[in-house]
Design brief:
With 69 residues, the chain is mainly α. It contains one helix and no strands.
Length: 69
């Protein structure tokens, strides 16, 4: 970013302000990514539980068939 400043102090303040804006933007992206990752993790855990339940049902069905033979 270009800065037309009156003196060196104003120039430094502008640079610091620009850096802070960029850091805030990065923090915002990081928080957004963190939220997305947490949501994906929750969905994955739910899906894993569903798969475990289905597998348990299949194992029970198999065991019943084996006992019937």
């Amino acid at each position: 970013k270009e800065c037309v400043c009156k003196d060196e102090d104003e120039w430094c303040e502008q640079i610091i302000a620009d850096i802070n804006k960029k850091m805030d933007a990065k923090r915002h992206v990081s928080e957004q990514e963190k939220t997305e990752i947490e949501e994906i993790q929750k969905q994955s855990e739910i899906l894993l539980e569903d798969v475990k339940k289905e597998l348990e049902i299949l194992v029970q069905q198999r065991d019943r068939k084996i006992h019937m033979i």
